[in-house]
Amino acid sequence: MGRHHIRLCMSISCWIRGANQIKDYMTRHMGVESGETMKDGSFSWEAVPDCLGACEMAPMIQLDKDFHGNLTPDKLGHILTEASKHSPGSKDDETKKHRNAKTN
Ligand code: FES
Q1: What's the number of domains the chain is made of?
Q2: CA of 34 to the centre of ligand 1 (A)
Q3: Is the pLDDT assigned to residue 58 strictly greater than 70?
Q4: Which of 13, 19, 35, 76 is surrounded by the fewest CB atoms within 10 Å?
Q5: Which of 8, 11, 67 to mutate to test the pocket of ligand 1 (most atoms within 8 A of CB)?
Q6: Mean pLDDT, rounded, for 54-77
Q7: The CATH number of the domain where 23 resides is what?
């Protein structure tokens, strides 16, 4: 598994709203298929058949512990770029969580 792990929901709501486009983007952008890890170890991903419980934001992914939805390939590109700057559990990641908690 990569430093970041992505689960792409392929269940009905996400599928209807374009999960296949997101899947194609993931394969092209990362250069690996579902279930594989990028050579540099930064990301792994998997297409999951089960609903992740966030249909209102379809199509969506779970990136580490966070959900990201209403995805387009462009939006996903930005999310992956930002994630690549941080490691899960790092000080940066904890600072971001703390900042988000204060604003919610
Ligand atoms: S179908 Fe994707 S979150 Fe429910």
Answers
A1: 1
A2: 17
A3: yes
A4: 35
A5: 11
A6: 97
A7: 3.40.30.10
